[in-house]
Amino acid sequence: MTAQDIKQEKEIYRYEVPLGGRRTHIGGGWLPSREEVTKYEKLSPVDFEILSYRMHSICNEARQAILRVSGSPVVAEGGEALFAVYDPHGHTSSLACGLLLHTVGTQGNIREVLEVQAEAPGIYDGDIFMLNEPSIGGYHACDQWTGTPVFHEGELIAWLGSLTHTAETGAIEPGGIPAAARSLLDEGYRVQGIKVQEKGKINRAAINCLLRSSRDPAYYVLDLRARIAGLNVAKERFGRLVERYGVDKVKAAIQQNMDYAEEMARAKLRNLADGTWRFLAYMDWDVGPGPKLIKILTTMTKEGDTLTLDFEAPPPNQGYYNCYPPGAFGLVFVALASQLFWETPGNYGFLRPLNVFFPKNSCLNIPYLTPCGLCAAFPVTEAVTGTIAKMLYTNKQYWQDINAPWQRTCTAGVFWGGLTQHGYPSGSLFSDSWAVGTGAGVDEGRGDGCDTGGMMMTVESCVSDVEMMELQSPFMYLWRREGLDTAGPGRWRGGASISYGVIPHNSPFVALGFTAIGAYGDSSQSLDGAYPPAMESPCEIARGTNILEAFKRQWIPQSLEDLHKLAEESGGTIETVKSPRPVLPVEADRDVIASVFGGARGIGDPLDREPERVLEDVNNKITSLEMARRVYGVAIDSETLTVDLKATETLRDEVKANRRKRGKIWEGSK
Amino acid sequence: MRIHYYLEIDEEAKKVKCLKCGHVICDASENYKLHVPRAEVWPDEIYGGRRPPRDETLLIYYEYYCPGCYTMLDVEVMEKDAAPLWDIQVKIP
Q: Lower Cβ count inside 10 Å, N or C end of chain A?
């Protein structure tokens, strides 16, 4: 039975290696039994602090090496890279994250290598294995992991692993996340443990297999070498750690780090009330021709020091909004690590108090070969974040941590492929998709969400400069700014997200890929009386414009309205993309593409927001005057930009009177 | 015990109360949404940003108000005619 079979059979998804395995020879040394690995002499608090911190520093340094070597904007600027130290059986002990979701998702990779390769060809010092198989680890084929074993005097003492989101996978469309995929086989090459380095020597044949499978070998090889560089840096530092403190202490620190995280997590859970919290999240498209509602209900039950997450989800989609358990579990981890256990070392330990149920053969636990490019996991993170926020109210100590779900992101016209202005084929995504709003907090915490604050699953993401995007891709920006009225209106509002417009430029061939969902219904709600944020605007393409003429007249279109005006003036057309679409060729210096992302979720009744905060948002072009009046009930003079307090009181009274009129006690479904 | 931005449970009386106006809504063991006014609202009634037009939307909003002060307690995003979601179910000993 393979690791994959085990995963699909298990209802509770834990990634636990059963205790009691025996000591095994794996080629380059011995793999200790689970009992040997987990038994250790507890370190003194000082030693533990030093060693735990050193391991974390090693991970950070290795991740920095990845970011500096990789030339890919997704990695170097988007920060989509991860480095981790694992125990000999593949449990994450320490990590530096750009991609929170892969922390536990990558553990399956190590188990796959141990199960499949330990006996033959064997696992040796200096080997580097590569995997990007979503049913084993990661969540789609773009998630490319390389790992190396660390031996000491003939015994495997740890694994080191590095991961990047590598945009080009040789899929049936450029960019690695093809909307046309109807099978995992359509989503590009999937490597399942080949040695890209054997006993310290690069395996050029293996690497060539990868490079020749990609449309973009230049960025591809940089990412691969970046991951290897990270492993080299960490291995050298790890060796020094063993030299200085002794192998027993380092082995103990790896285990104690996880035990410590588990203790902290359980203690926090004990501090919160027992109960059950629920949250609904949605997607609105499968493969068409019309929209389809995909509803995911999360039920979180906390009892004592355990937490159970039970998901109800529909069968797999025909398209790519699906997850294998490593991806779904990774997105649960994103919410837990950032919202509930943020003060706990991010490792496998804090997952031990968890029971997670993904229904078999649902879109969160799909059968092998189901496509999974865009994953069904965004609603999972939103829903787990929502349930955690509700639970945190039960202890004043944690009110400052309450956080509404962030913007879902990645659901607009974000992928491109073609020939760059430098004359070579390439494919990637617009990093604008990382510049989305974060969720609101409450009075004791952060209050408003952060505008264009970042992507929840990639907490260290930053948006590439426009100049960098223009240098690396065949596009020219017309505008990039915070989107008006995108934030979820509330007593504390969500963060606003980005709006951008580009033209393909200086290239004979460019095509775009569209992942749009969320045009037919809000993806989920805000909290405690706030309205949902604006949805993604459909991606708009103005075709056949005379944009170059407009430049000559010193006019640069700055909004969707300008885009429509430009199309009309030019005798061009507007094409609206409201659902996932296979790549669409666009014409350089003629077509204009624009997206406005939806915002993040707020908390509390918008009528409770202080008028001066609403005014500040109007001045900062986060909120329009009309939204201020109609949603927040704040009257602002459009000339003087001052609040009329009396008119505001009247407006708010009117809204409440309307609520009295419309509100009725629910008397059962009709 | 606070359970929501605007709601708390009076642990002695075992009742859910509004923190703003003190209105007692229901027993702590019940779904408060069954005891407060709710209004069905089309997303395109809410001004600003993009909201799905009513001839296209798959989901609508259900607003819930405190019966005492008419503070908005929740805006659910649901299928039309869906029952209120029991989203907060705190165990009171």
A: C
